Amino acid sequence: MTTSTPLATAKVRLRGVVFDMDGTLTVPVIDFPAMYRTVLGEKEYLKIKSENPSGIDILHHIETWSPDKQKQAYEIIADFEKQGLDRLQIMPGASELCGFLDSRNIRRGLITRNVKEAVDLFHLRFGMIFSPALSREFRPYKPDPAPLLHICTTWGMQPDEVMMIGDSLKDDVACGKRAGAFTCLLDETGRYDSPVYENTEFKPDYTVTSLVEARSLLEKHFDLIP
Ligand SMILES: [Mg+2]
C-alpha cells in the first residue's frame, strides 16, 4: 500500500466495533426514570438525581443495599426490562451497519448492562450474532472498562483499534474512553446538547444522530482493515 500526496491525511485503522444494546441496536423502550422512581422511591430518586445530573447508575446504588432490599430492587428492574423485551424493536440502520461491517470482515461485539436472557432474545430477533456479547452477568459492568478490554483481548486487538458505539454518555462513552478505545455517542434527539453535560468527565470522539450516520463516519474516518 502506498500513501500518495503529502496532503492526504492518514486514516486510522479500525478492526472492531463494540455496540451497546438498549437504545443503540434496539429502539429505547425501557422507561428508566419510572424504573428508578419505583426502585428508589420518589424522595431518594430526587435526591440521587440532583447529585448525579448526568444520569443515575441504578445497579451501582443497589449493590450496597441489604440482600433482601436488593432482591426486591432486582425484581422491579426485571419487570421493567421484561416490558421492554415485549416491545423490542430493532434500531433503524442497525442491520445495514452490521451487514456493512461483516462485508469488511470487521468484528462486532456487544456490551450491555441488561441480562443474558435479553441478549438471547435480541440475537433471535436481529438474526445476527454479536461475539463476544457480554451482559450484566459479566462483572464489573459498564462504565468499567473491563468488559471492553475483555473483548479486545478475546479479539487479539489493541483498544485503539476498536470503537465503542452507544447511546449513554455515562456508561458507553465512559467505558470506551477508560479502555482507550474510540467512542461514538448515538444521540438521536440531541439530548446531550444540554448544558448539564458540558462538564462531564468523558467526551465522545464522535456524535451521530443515527446508525446510518455511524456507517458514513466509519467509512470516512477509518481504514476498516481486519
Ligand atoms: Mg443504551
From TrEMBL:
<dbReference type="GO" id="GO:0009507">
    <property type="term" value="C:chloroplast"/>
</dbReference>
<dbReference type="InterPro" id="IPR006439">
    <property type="entry name" value="HAD-SF_hydro_IA"/>
</dbReference>
<protein>
    <recommendedName>
        <fullName>Haloacid dehalogenase-like hydrolase domain-containing protein</fullName>
    </recommendedName>
</protein>
<dbReference type="InterPro" id="IPR023214">
    <property type="entry name" value="HAD_sf"/>
</dbReference>
<dbReference type="InterPro" id="IPR036412">
    <property type="entry name" value="HAD-like_sf"/>
</dbReference>
<dbReference type="Pfam" id="PF00702">
    <property type="entry name" value="Hydrolase"/>
</dbReference>
